[in-house]
Known about the structure:
Elements: H1 17-46, H2 49-82
Helix pairs in contact: 1-2
Amino acid sequence: MMAPDDKMHGPGAAIDPSSAMLAHELNQPLTAVMLYLQAAVTASERQSRCDMVDVLDLVKKALIEAERALAIAERMQSSKDSGC
């Protein structure tokens, strides 16, 4: 028999619907942040002046996506706190 918190760990663990929704909502902006930053690293390794403009653009896009992820987390926390 499993202890009560044993079912909360591991790949087969049950996830409550709000946690699943949060994970789904955060996946896209966090993936975008990762991809933008990987592209920025690649461009910065080339070290040309034009590439530095590209790096700045990519970092700005990553910042927008990070802000989007934060807003999602804040909405989820707010709805949890208000009981909705």
